[in-house]
Amino acid sequence: MSNKRIAAVIAAACIGSGAMAQGILTAETAAPNTTPGISIISLSEAASKAGIADIQVTAGQTLTNSVQNVAEGKTDIAAAPFILPFLMSRGVGPYAGLGAEAGADLADNLAVLYTYRVSVQGLFVYDSANISGWDGLEGKTIYNGPPRGAALTNARLLTKTVTGLEEGTGYTGVQVNWGQAVKTIQDGSADAFVLPQAFPDPRITAALASGDITVFSMPKDVHEGEAFQKIAKLPGTVRFSMPVAEMGYGDGVTVVSEDDTFRGPATVGGDVVNVNMDFDTAKALTTAFIENIETIYHAKASFMPVTWHGETDPEVTDMCGTNPMKYHPGAVAAWEEAGYTLPDCAK
Question: CA 110, CA 106: separation in Å to the nearest integer?
Answer without folding.
Answer: 7
